[in-house]
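Could you help me review a protein record that somebody else here produced? This is what I was given.
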Amino acid sequence: MTAPKLMPLAIGLFAIGVLAIIAVFVLFATGHSDLPLWLNVAATYLPAIGLALGIIAVIRKARQKKS
């Protein structure tokens, strides 16, 4: 995947992960204790994956400009 195509994917994954984190906090604040596994996994891993892909995209774009 090229850097311009990778950045929107990274932003999307990060945004979905942040929304999952917000959902976890809201559900916990309203008294739900047994949250679905998929929500916990999304809140845990999607922001990190999105951030990592974003960093990779920025590095790849910077290296393309040097060449």
